[in-house]
Amino acid sequence: MDWQISEDTVPSSLITEADARSMVGRPPASGAWQDGDPVGDRRFAAFGALHLEGGGVLPSFRLAYETWGELNEARDNAVLIAHALTGDSHVRGDAGPGHPTAGWWGDIVGPGAPIDTDRFFVIAPNILGGCQGSTGPASIHPDGEEWASRFPYVTVRDQVAAQVRLADHLGIEVWAAVIGGSMGGMHALEWGVGHPDRLRRLAVLSSPPVTTADQIALNSVQLQAIDMDPRFRGGEYYQAADGDGPHRGLALARRMALLNYRSPTELNSRFQRSWQSGVSPLGHGGRFAVESYLDFHGNKFTRRFDANSYVRLVEAMDSHDVGRERGGIEDALARVTATTLVLGIDSDRLFPISGQHQIARGIPHTLDGDQAVVLVSDFGHDGFLIESAAVGHHLRRLLETD
Asked: Is 220 an active-site residue?
């Protein structure tokens, strides 16, 4: 769970008048990419039925994805990047038609970058259940209407099963590496545990082996914020006019989440008790600067995401447990055969470093023994996106292994 796009992952800062003006106007009922919108750099792959872990069935689905670099003749240089909760396939590239923001990991992926596209063929799919081109609640059901509330419950394993179908479609039998952070780290770990013969290297960044009760509790409050918005309408809001969708509930959920993405140290040092304007917040109607910061990013989020997708993806994240029906976490981690980088952030209060250490202890072949790499950062969970130089250094270490 993180900002996922470059302009949102920069260090926290005061909201300017120009920032505020950029949010003038009513947000759409859904920020989902829809058929007929500019495609941008997306590619698409369509598939037949997907039988889901919870017993449901998607009669068909598609994944949107983007690629960089070239697949070699041996087809053994492909790297899969799994994005986090609210990310998308636009890992690298400029903003433009179809992509309102620039790529979210442009310092990490590219020619000569830590994930070097002169060497590797990089693929980033949009997650199943997402809202940026892959099948999700905003997609069209076979009956011609949006899936909306009918979109089935999907788990992290279901999402990985969809990625397996994409790998088969592209003719990639073994990944050179599977890399993911946050929720994407859950997908990466599921690849390592569930499909150990299909990847040589693995990177799990700022992600746990299991979603804990504490994390589920925090997620549940966000989902309630969306559900309690009267404009959510039980998930049936796609025909609503601009400004009449569940943007208040979605923005509130986003503000709640942000408090777990950043650390107290960063928020306290950047905002302190400053005011947003010259009007005092002490009984005179003004606002503290940190309040405006949260509101701005919550409102901005509603313009690029979909409330139903947020619900389904948070539910999927709650499903994460690599040990489920595998004899427990330790037995599951022992299945991983890939050379693995496990990395976490010391100030991460969403997925604390103890979870990464547990993963490192359980996987037989890690770069650093039974301890995860610990980055010291004031940026909390979002540090794996912001601390590009340090993260890139460790990804280079992994990709240079045989």
From this structure: no
